[in-house]
Amino acid sequence: MIQAQKVACTNHAGFVMSFVVKTQGAESSATGKYPINQTEVIDLSASGKFTAGAECWPEVHAVLGKTESSHDHFIFAMNGQTAAYEVKGTTLDYHVKMIGQPSSATLPDFPANVPLNQYPFSNWAGDITVSNVWTCAPTTTQDVVDVCNWAATHQFRVRARGFMHGWSPLAVTEGMSNGSLLLVDLTKNLNQLTFMAAANAQPAMVRAGTGASMIDLLTFLEGQPGGGGTASGYGFPHIPGPGSLTLGGVLAINAHGTGVATPPLESLP
């Protein structure tokens, strides 16, 4: 049985989910709810409920569905390695399976303060799947600069990773070698939202991290005071599908959407 300190669950199922890690008589805190094509990680060392040598497994809860435990167990060890699992299926018929072995590989001189691991990449269309892609999750914009500077001196290509809601090989190509590709996951930390009220002849504005989801952005704006429409808060006349899309992804591909006329401010053709 493999040994690991962390557990990563990638949601390739048709629902929103959360998960905990369990052992006999104890369990970790749950992750937040997250949608398809996202990965969350639980570090058992932070729990205080797990002892070295304990047999553990993830238990997934599907929103509006059932709870399912994995039959693939591992042994908890303070070794920094990650047991990777994948969730596939529908709300009432899905499985949680371990994918691959934990890797102890590291990248030389990589910025120590930036979380780094290897995770599978699978796009929304399901036609591009690559295992063990180097993926980091910077917490600040300076982290992004440091990562890019590191990549430039170590012959790595850097690509942004959002919700992988695409079908074109813009960042990852099926069958590619992943040894010199680094994905920068913007969804974990670079997703802050700040509202700026109208002032000094400027309209109300919002500052958003590129890792923010469209649905989070719209929900945030809806809750801001001072909107002048019949609906509460603020919004946009045009939006693409607001679910599993990041703001950065939408801007990068000039995503299309639907809209309604909002005269006298706008008149759609």
What is the gist of this entry?
The protein is mostly beta strands and 269 residues long. It has helices at residues 141-153, 214-222, 247-252, and strands at 3-4, 6-11, 17-23, 26-27, 39-43, 55-62, 67-69, 74-76, 82-90, 93-98, 116-122, 129-136, 157-161, 181-185, 193-196, 205-208, 238-239, 258-259.
What would the keywords be for this entry?
single chain; 269 residues; mainly beta; Immunoglobulin-like; Uridine Diphospho-n-acetylenolpyruvylglucosamine Reductase, domain 2; 3 domains; six-stranded mixed β-sheet; four-stranded mixed β-sheet; 3 helices; 18 strands
Overview of this protein structure:
This protein is mainly beta. The chain folds into 3 domains: 1-104, Immunoglobulins (Immunoglobulin-like); 107-181, Uridine Diphospho-n-acetylenolpyruvylglucosamine Reductase, domain 2; 193-259, no CATH class. It is 10% helix and 33% strand. The strands form 5 sheets. Strands 1, 3, 4, 6, 7 and 8 form a 6-stranded mixed β-sheet that branches. The protein has a 4-stranded mixed β-sheet with strand order 5-2-9-10, with no helix packed on it. A 4-stranded mixed β-sheet has the order 11-12-14-13, with helices on one face. It starts with a strand and ends in a 10-residue tail after the last strand. The model has no long low-confidence stretch (mean pLDDT 86).
